[in-house]
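Researcher: Here's a chain I'd like modeled. Treat it as a single chain, no partners, no ligands.
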Amino acid sequence: MAHTIELSDVQMASLARQIGTRMGFVPSGQGVTDEIAESFPVFVVDDRIGAAPGAAPKLLISAAALDTGSVHHNIARTTNPAPGSSAPASQSVVGAARSRFDPASNGYKVEAMTQAASGNDLPRWIRNAAYWVEQHASGDPFVKLLMVPSRYMHCFWLSYPDKDCVVVIDMPQKFSNLEYRKIYDSDEFFALLQREPPVSGLGS
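Model: Modeled as a single isolated chain. Structure tokens:
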């Protein structure tokens, strides 16, 4: 079973208050409940590390990724069926937040928030990829959110004691060598990434 960062009940309650103030959480008990769902520490990496001289196979990300100090939080809304209905409760991603650890308070302070737009967007892609990783990753990797800014990519970094693996969350449509719903060893991932066309422009 994959795992990620663990926040204490006090830290989660503080984050919920901060996010609720900005976003307007729906109070529980009214058929709808908002909550912080997935939380992942955020790292960034250069797309060229696969070509780094002397890089250890399958340990490329561990050697080169930089910890941003931020944590990504998905915000989910659970809607309960009307009393007497046999329909199951439904849950949807309605937004995301980014926080940073504050040593003075031993808690996390929200730095930014975004509301999930209609249709697919990054918070929903993260949730879908997290479900897939939970079902398909072997062992017990530590899961981190990995950004490749030069390629406008978000991935999951599956960190094992003896190897690093990658699952693509989103990437430019013109990429044709990498696939979604596939677990890559890190050296294979970066080798395939080098075959993708360069990305130009400012991105989103």
